[in-house]
Specification:
This protein is mainly alpha-helical and 294 residues long. It folds into 3 domains: 3-133, no CATH class; 163-217, no CATH class; 226-292, Arc Repressor Mutant, subunit A. Helix content is 50%, strand content 9%. The chain has 13 helices and 6 strands. The strands form 2 sheets. A 3-stranded parallel β-sheet has the order 1-2-3, with helices on both faces. It has a 3-stranded antiparallel β-sheet with strand order 4-6-5. Helix 2 (37-51) packs parallel to helix 4 and helix 11 crosses helix 13 (283-292). It is globular and about 65 Å long. The mean pLDDT is 92.
Length: 294
Amino acid sequence: MGKTSLIKRIIADATRDNYRTIYLDLSSVEGKILTNLDKFLRWLSCMVGKQLNLENQLNEYWDAEILGSNDNCTVYFEEYLLTQIDTSIVLALDNIDKIFSHTEIIEDFFGMLRSWHEKGKISEVWQKLRLVLAHSTEVYVPLDINQSPFNAGVPIELVEFDSQQIKQLVAIHGLNWGETEIKQLMQLVGGHPFLVRLAMYEVSYKNLNLEQFLQEASTEAGVYSNHLRGYLEVLQKCQKLAQAFKLAVDSPEPVELDSIQIYKLHSMGLIKILHNCVIPSCNLYREYFQRVLG
């Protein structure tokens, strides 16, 4: 939650500091590209070059007969992309978890990113590159500790807003809310940044009464309907997972689930883990899925 917003803020700050910035959303990559390492790395190299307004020189630098895909990509960055730009570059890869399931590419790709990080310690050329990797699920890819880019650099975990932060947002939105209204909203959505922000925008923009908003929130007429249906579509494709989540939303007490089910539901953001048991992440999810999960 909030990772794309954070990336945009990082990019904005980097731009102000005269970095060249590149944003790539890996959820937009076609499936056929993600099944072939060479195609994926050529896609990456091409997209980075486009955002740097550089001519495509892949055919000049890519030596498929002698070098492997990782080496070709590294050479293309080192000898062409990074040398053509005078300033430092921020390369932000968003939704990188979308490729976790593509075993054909992940080990080599993440190993390459880690090697770039290590090169930056000794090479002036590679010191120009700053990598930002954003993912919304736990890193479950089985990588060697020395190959993983996820244990290098600075990890940032985004957590829910607390009541004080929500109070600041109330002021920013110009809402005449006190502690009671803040508590009512948090009872429904907790401190989930997206859900809180959407509620405030809707109430402020449409000049709604908070009580009316809360009554409609978990219904098909509520502002969260698209967000909730997106989760429902995922759950309907996996009935066992849907049944497990139904146990959680129907129970007034924390429930025990299979560890794999816990992992998947937690990765989706639908549950909170309390020791070995789980509860729905917020009452919005409890109310909606009690109704729609038969």
